[in-house]
Write a structure and sequence with these properties.
Catalyzes a salvage reaction resulting in the formation of AMP, that is energically less costly than de novo synthesis. This protein has about 180 residues and is an alpha/beta fold. The protein has six helices and nine strands, in the order H-E-E-H-H-E-H-E-E-E-E-H-E-H-E. The strands form three sheets. A five-stranded parallel sheet has the order 4-3-7-8-9, sandwiched between helices. A two-stranded antiparallel ribbon has the order 1-2.
Length: about 180
């Protein structure tokens, strides 16, 4: 499948979660077997090129893409979770949202010292969640220099924020505007 064919599988939902927003919904891509497989293949190529030996995914849709890519490449997968989901002692980070804060957690034993990790998620908007996840992984001992997203919304500035922090940004698809 071409990138245009994959992009056509992403549903656009107007006015969600608020008026004026065009929500890019990967549910329809993930639900299309050949399209999802093609997306995973293309993303896996970018992971290989990054030299990562572990993939980390952010809850929840980062799990879908990250775990599929990890399985395709025979790499380990690390879950970056929302609070209270892991049954072991965790390390956590609070980060700012547009209205308030949120927290991410990881099992510090899930990442070995010096592992080269690529962070995978479905969507890059402002970059706040990705920067928090990267900091969390680094606290656990990982080296994180690359990120990979199914979709980038470049006008929201997340890619620029990550690049300013010395992180290489890869995205399968991009959508100008929001």
């Amino acid at each position: 499948m071409t990138l245009d064919e994959i992009k056509a599988l992403v549903r656009t939902v107007p006015d969600f979660p608020k008026p004026g927003i065009l929500f890019r919904d990967v549910t329809t891509l993930v639900g299309h077997g050949p399209g999802f497989s093609a997306a995973v293949d293309l993303m896996a190529e970018r992971v290989k090129a990054s030299g990562a030996d572990v993939i980390a995914g952010v809850e929840a849709r980062g799990f879908i893409f990250g775990a599929a890519i990890a399985a395709r490449l025979d790499l380990g997968f690390v879950s970056i979770r929302k609070p209270g989901k892991l049954p072991v002692p965790v390390i956590a980070i609070d980060y700012a949202l547009e209205y308030g804060t949120d927290t991410l957690e990881v099992d510090p034993e899930a990442v070995g010292e010096g592992h080269k990790v690529i962070l995978v998620d479905d969507l890059l908007a402002t970059g706040g969640t990705a920067l928090a996840a990267i900091e969390l992984l680094r606290r656990a001992g990982a080296t994180v220099e690359h990120t990979l997203f199914a979709i980038d919304l470049p006008d929201l500035g997340g890619g620029d924020r990550l690049r300013s922090a010395g992180i290489t940004v890869h995205a399968l698809l991009d959508y100008p505007g929001h």
